[in-house]
Amino acid sequence: xxxxxxxxYSVNVxxxxxxxxxxxxxxxxxxxxxxxxxxxxxxxxxxxxxxxNYRRGYDNRVIRLIKDSLLHNKYIEELTDADRDALLAHCxxxxxxxxxxxxxxxxxxxxxxxxxxxxxxxxxxxxxxFLGIYGAVPILPPDQYRALVLQATRGCPFNDCDFCSFYRGxxxxxxxxxxxxxxxxxxxxxxxxxLRLRQSVFLGDANAVLLPTARLLERMEQVRRxxxxxxxxxxxxxxxxxxxxxxxxxxxxYGFLDGLSGTRKTLADYRSLAAAGLKRVYIGAESxxxxxxxxxxxxxxxxxxxxxxQLCRQAGIAVGLxxxxxxxxxxxxxxxxxxxxxxxxxxxxxxxxxxxxYLSPFVRDRARASR
Length: 371
Description:
Blueprint: E1 9-13, E2 17-22, E3 29-34, E4 39-45, E5 51-56, E6 62-67, E7 73-78, H1 81-99, H2 106-117, H3 120-134, E8 147-151, E9 153-154, E10 173-174, H4 177-191, E11 200-204, H5 213-226, H6 236-245, E12 253-256, H7 259-262, H8 267-275, E13 278-286, H9 290-295, H10 302-315, E14 318-325, H11 332-348, E15 356-361, H12 366-369
Parallel strand pairs: 8-11, 11-12, 12-13, 13-14, 14-15
Antiparallel strand pairs: 1-2, 2-3, 3-4, 4-5, 5-6, 6-7, 9-10
Helix pairs in contact: 1-2, 3-4, 4-5, 8-10
């Protein structure tokens, strides 16, 4: 910056966040915050033209996302603690400098003061609060990254798959109604104004939709009493208008469900859940080949997944189907069967425009594999 030249910046306020940009109109730095003043991310372009996007999680980890000239992701890496602290110090030094500018309009100054109050020490303390509520960063499918996670259950009831270590050391537990209420209150207090960034409710942890239907409906009703939830029968167009009028509002319930547990519910169960607002379930199918499922210690089989998907779709509940990519590379013949039989299964399922198929890279759990 040139000596004695005032910092050139703009503050852009949206419905659920605000951003500070330096050196308009091209902007070499953009800092984004939610309306609680918590930093969400940063964009930085250095003097040589290299660009980097940073995203901060509620556990205070920061990842760096590098894109190529076509805006494709080149790689993502987590910053070391030292690099994260240096980045945050730089960003909040910018906030402090802008706050010293007497040209800053009062409404924008109020937002920046809120951000300054949520500087590095506050963000570190919030990490401990967040982990105290959730235990760890919840696992979510990519389309639910802006969901509010509410843990009707904790852990996974199976927890023996070779490729998954997310819930190791966490005993599966179904929260009682009182425990769930306490959990939701802690979540509500933690997020506060940040609830504006949340869009839906994801019922955690690994397999919450397996709960007996009557109990699951009770938990969904508890959520409605605690949070502003959209009526379940709104059309997609009406949901947009409803959200505009309810800035803290949440639309729909989502959750994981394994194929084996999914077959234990009836069509009437799924219709009751759909009527209560269950929009989509995410099923870890992993493979359409039973031999592959057995090899990776997955408890369900292809027929279970097919039946569960069919029941959900008949009830009007969308599905997110998760398949493993790169499994059985040490056995080319079995890997080929995995590909062929998985494709055949997906093509035979009654999927529609609201359904999603995810490919998840296979990474063997080393501790499990070495036993």
